[in-house]
Amino acid sequence: MYKLVIEGGSRLEGEIRISGSKNASLPILMASIMADSDVILENVPGLKDIHTSLKLLTLLGCKSGYSEGSARIQAGELVPEAPYDLVRTMRASVLCLGPLLARLGRAKVALPGGCAIGSRPVDQHLRGLEQMGAGFELDSGYIVGKCKRLSGAHIIFDLPTVGGTENLLMAAALAKGETVLENAAREPEITDLAEFLNACGARISGHGTSVIRVQGVDSLEGCTYRVMSDRIEAGTYMVAAAITHGEVLLTNCPDKELDAVVAKLQEMGVVISPEPEGFRVSSNGDLQGVDVVTLPYPGFPTDMQAQIMALMCVAAGTGTIKETIFENRFLHALELNRMGARIKLSGQSAVVRGGADLVGAPVMASDLRASASLVLAGLRARGKTEVQRIYHLDRGYEVMEKKLEAVGAKISRQKEN
Known about the structure:
The N and C termini lie close together (8 Å). The protein has a 4-stranded mixed β-sheet with strand order 22-23-1-24, covered by helices on one side. The chain has a 4-stranded mixed β-sheet with strand order 2-15-17-16. Strands 4-5-3-14 form a 4-stranded mixed β-sheet, covered by helices on one side. It is of the alpha/beta class. It is built from 14 helices and 24 strands. The chain folds into 2 domains: 2-19 and 229-415, Enolpyruvate transferase domain (UDP-n-acetylglucosamine1-carboxyvinyl-transferase, Chain, Alpha-beta prism), CATH 3.65.10.10; 22-226, Alpha-beta prism (UDP-n-acetylglucosamine1-carboxyvinyl-transferase, Chain), CATH 3.65.10. One of its GO terms (cellular component) is cytoplasm. Pathway: Cell wall biogenesis; peptidoglycan biosynthesis. One of its GO terms (molecular function) is UDP-N-acetylglucosamine 1-carboxyvinyltransferase activity. It is found in: Cytoplasm.
């Protein structure tokens, strides 16, 4: 295993290119098994989860490959089983359930794993697919589903669910008749998935709103499609510039998808200016604590909660963070406190007393975004910070240490003892 070793105190200055979106790429990769011909995806990040997905596609009967930001998936004789050894390492693997049922009428998918940030059940996925005609049983840790051709249905989600919306959206693309998804999640990655499916010949409208309509088609063809850029990676590097009193130009950057993050950072005093190439982000260190509530899109994303907490630790005044999406997503607060932060937890809320003089320390990542927050704190802290268990980080950030080193950070990847 590896760790990141950071000597804090360097001001970041320069240009960072934002990678393609992991959270958009993963469902699009799963959707590619629905196409009758080859799919070429551009702007795909070279992440562990991407390569895990490509391994899964190979096990499902597709030929797949990756090179320099481009993934190619060749249609093959599909196999309906997603094994536990892969699914347990990546929760997004469950997104092959809808496509397999739509294409083959059967699927056997292990119950998913992923980060330890709380319960994320798949009951809404299954309930919606049952409304479309599928039947399920649980067999030794596997979801086993069967159906004839799926039929359109009017499905109302109890709560907006990103994965559930994606799974049912894909299934509905090849179902017979019209499917209406009501109270659907509105995340930009869902819009990107719908645009990809439409490029393959699907008939989807309303994506980006809470009501999505899908007119099922008999088949989908492959296409070449460019995946959106990663809004969470962009937000993370915005915080990196601010926490180091730096100035960084972010290129290949999402725009309106970052509105909630940009607004909150500007409220703290971060200067963010749109430019033809992307966003220029700077701070002179005159920052103020704010109140943050994580919400489904278009609200402030839960995936940026840990990062803005790190920034609030060094801002003036006191701010609060209320986490409404996941019930176990404050584990990074304890590690930040070990570095000198002053964070008090109470249930799903955190009170952050700013003005902390962060000091480097050995810290341990509990999940993907927690890893990022500890790296950000290490960039600011006096002395050396060692962020351990960075396999979490590698699931969501493409060569983070190289991108940060290129703009002035003193950071290196080293083997753990």
